[in-house]
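Good morning,

Attaching, inline, the backbone tokens for the sequence recovery test we're adding to the shared suite. The designed sequence is right after.
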């Protein structure tokens, strides 16, 4: 082999996908035959594809204006990785440029970070990037775990930072980009890849597995108390509501229930970061009915529960 250029063209591709090898050549060789070969390129079997000689595995396109021919290697396998040569046929010595192809698994094979959210709530997911070169690079998010198609199937990118319920923010000082999903639904559960596009080499990725829980919502509790005594029940709520004001109201319909927080016999106490308690002292027969406890000023799924209270008479002892 002779007339070898000093450059090495790095190429990266994923298993079962395609890799594209861009081979520049000098002006004046537009009409010369181009090819891609492997090994020492001395045998006919070493030549994989020539100009206008496409196959299922290899195809070639010569952009004579750009002085570059491109070879697409399809259906990549791990054993396709290795050294190749871009060749230009000419009288005497051909022109060769070395190509190094790396092949990686298309699907994310690591352990994703598990994230939980509540139906109708919101969740914010952070992905860190490491290098200065990544700061101004495109950030993007897709569902699933296939890296090769993630950018093409992106839900949202740093060029389009709002897409319906999805919002992307990028803190370039902290080198962290965040995606917030609002009004979560059970359909949002699944795998997500957060990608950072790179000009050379593999894009960087964070992988997450999101579980959206059907958060008790309108599941009813049934409580029974006794006149003259105290009754207490627990009201769970999403952790992100822990600093909210807690409400308790009474009525058959939540749309017209009566706020009970001003009643002296009613009290609300914080129990933990995920629940608060409601107490009624010196129960009366008229306390029976339907109650609603909530942790948000808005009636949204996940911010309230329903409690049905019945009040029995105190038993009397006769002699």
């Amino acid at each position: 082999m002779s007339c070898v250029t000093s450059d090495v063209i790095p190429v990266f591709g994923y298993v079962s996908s395609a890799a594209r090898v861009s081979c520049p050549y000098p002006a004046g060789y537009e009409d010369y035959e181009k090819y891609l070969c492997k090994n020492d390129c001395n045998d006919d079997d070493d030549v994989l594809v020539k100009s206008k000689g496409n196959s299922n595995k290899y195809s070639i396109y010569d952009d004579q204006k750009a002085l570059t021919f491109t070879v697409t290697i399809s259906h990549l396998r791990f054993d396709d990785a290795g050294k190749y040569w871009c060749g230009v046929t000419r009288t005497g010595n051909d022109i060769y440029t070395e190509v190094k192809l790396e092949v990686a698994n298309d699907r994310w094979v690591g352990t994703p970070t598990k994230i939980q959210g509540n139906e109708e709530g919101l969740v914010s997911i952070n992905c860190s990037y490491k290098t200065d070169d990544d700061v101004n690079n495109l950030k993007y998010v897709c569902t699933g775990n296939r890296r090769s198609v993630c950018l093409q199937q992106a839900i949202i990118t740093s060029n389009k930072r709002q897409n319906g319920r999805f919002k992307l923010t990028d803190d370039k000082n902290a080198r962290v980009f965040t995606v917030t999903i609002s009004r979560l639904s059970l359909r949002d559960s699944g795998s997500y890849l957060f990608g950072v596009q790179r000009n050379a080499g593999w894009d960087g990725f964070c992988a997450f597995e999101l579980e959206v829980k059907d958060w008790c919502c309108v599941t009813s509790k049934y409580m029974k108390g006794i006149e003259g005594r105290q009754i207490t029940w627990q009201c769970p709520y999403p952790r992100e509501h822990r600093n909210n004001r807690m409400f308790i109201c009474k009525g058959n319909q939540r749309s017209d229930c009566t706020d009970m927080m001003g009643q002296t016999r009613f009290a609300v106490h914080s129990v933990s970061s995920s629940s608060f308690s409601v107490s009624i002292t010196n129960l009366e027969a008229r306390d029976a009915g339907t109650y609603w406890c909530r942790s948000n000023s808005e009636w949204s799924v996940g911010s309230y529960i329903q409690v049905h209270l019945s009040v029995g008479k105190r038993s009397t002892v006769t002699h």
